[in-house]
Design goal:
This protein is mainly β. Helix content is about 0%, strand content about 50%.
């Protein structure tokens, strides 16, 4: 059974940085970060294939966010820099049972409960 648990959310000021962590139990091949702001659909943020280093980012975060993995700890990170108020959302980590970088939520098999990130101006 795969379990996904996010941590590291919080309230910060615009321009600050924050690192989210996603701890995974069970075997998975790819991971993704998504976010959902109030009244909006869940949107893709970043994805990574374990141990290969292949990554993908949405245009909204490219150059500001970095996804990485520590396979020894079964943990994926999302380093967020130069945060903007529009980055405010609940951030979800998702696990995929097959290798690949996908931006649509339907391509992921397991989800965490989410962690709130609030960026104030």
């Amino acid at each position: 059974q795969v379990q996904v648990v996010e941590s590291g959310g919080g309230s910060v000021q615009a321009g600050d940085s924050l690192r989210l962590s996603c701890s995974v139990t069970g075997r998975t091949f790819s991971m993704g970060w998504f976010r959902q702001a109030p009244g909006k659909e869940r949107e893709f943020v970043a994805a990574i294939v374990w141990n290969i280093g292949s990554t993908s980012y949405s245009d909204a975060v490219k150059g500001r966010f970095t996804i990485s993995d520590d396979s020894a700890k079964n943990t994926v990170f999302l380093q967020m820099t130069s945060l903007k108020p529009e980055d405010t959302a609940v951030y979800y980590c998702a696990a995929r049972l097959h290798r690949g970088l996908f931006a649509h939520p339907r391509n992921y098999d397991y989800w965490g409960q989410g962690t709130q990130v609030t960026v104030s101006s």
